[in-house]
Amino acid sequence: MLKKYSGFIRKLPHKVDTATPESELLLWRSASKKLECFYAPFDYINYDAKIIIVGLTPGKTQMNRALNAARISILRGDSVSETINMVKRESSFSGKMREKLVKTLNRTGHHKLLGINCSSDLWSTHNHLVQFCSLLKYPVLSNGQNYNGTPKLFSKNEKELKTLIYEEFVKDLHSINPRALLVPLGDDVGKAISILAKEGSIPQKFKEINGKVISLPHPSPANNESIDLLLKEGYLSKKEYENKMYEKYIREKLKNGENPQHESTYKKARSSRWESMLLVRKAYGIDKIKQNVDD
Predict the structure, then answer these.
(1) What's the structural domain count of the chain?
(2) Distance CA 226, CA 221 (A)
(3) Domain that holds residue 245
(4) Residue 186 and residue 222: Cα distance in Å, rounded?
(5) What is the mean pLDDT of the chain?
(6) Within a domain: residue 292?
């Protein structure tokens, strides 16, 4: 698809991370008009990858950085394959997300599994080992904002999402090394992988416990708590964690003169995060929780 849009991309000015999508790059708009999908040069496929890292969809930041990188490459006279390869390496999980993802991958031992010193090498010296991709291959926006799982991926009212998954993501997976390890990021991606796997649409292996697909936390700011829980050397019991977080939360609310959530509501959310990351830690054999756990 880069061939189709290269002439337009060549003429683009430098785009800031928050720049509005270009209407000329619109691929489709859903029947409900809630969703829009835009082209960005995330076409590269590493057929020999040993690890496949799957996000939900490129956001505005990744889209704009990909377009900037593609424009520079096109103006330099690079081939299409060189351009999409460079874009994937430079734009995949860029910015602060990359730092968090590296820490998460190292914590779960993926660098050792691949025989490299650090997972950061996947963006440099050992880029040939990885396929960075998204369940929704091209940037999808919901009401003008980054798509975050709403409306649901397999919603009957948003058939375009399902079509994009099968016609791009599933098709790409079937062209990639079937012995590669697939690593989903975020619960929405994990649930989708589970659905696709039951259909026989996923040729690669992935981590699971009791039939549940294990997803690493996506390295977005919304998941900082989950990432912190995964990276911790020790793991508090559930009640200890809930109480510690609630005390901190109350102090912050009082300091800012804000009304706090009801205690049970706040602790329920913390409990959910705790349980989710405990399952990930168990799946990857990370240190056990304290012996006095009473949950």
Answers:
(1) 2
(2) 10
(3) 232-283
(4) 11
(5) 93
(6) no
Q: Which of 198, 220, 242 is the last residue of a domain?
A: 220
Are 242 and 274 contacting, i.e. CB atoms less than 8 angstroms apart?
yes
Q: Are residues 145 and 9 in the same domain?
A: yes
**Cβ(137)–Cβ(147) under 8 Å?**
no
Band the pLDDT of 289: cuts 50, 70, 90: low
Residues 6+ positions from 204 with CB-CB distance below 8 Å: 52, 173, 176, 177, 178, 179, 180, 181, 182
Lookup: tokens for 210? 């009791």
Give the span between the Cα atoms of 19 and 246, in whole angstroms. Answer: 37
- Looking at 197, 220, 243, the residue that finishes a domain is 220
- What distance in Å separates the CA atoms of residue 84 and residue 48, rounded to the nearest whole number? 16
**Mind listing the pLDDT tens digit for each residue in 77-93?**
999 999 999 998 888 88
pLDDT in tens, 230-252: 999 889 999 999 999 999 999 99
Same domain, 215 and 239: no
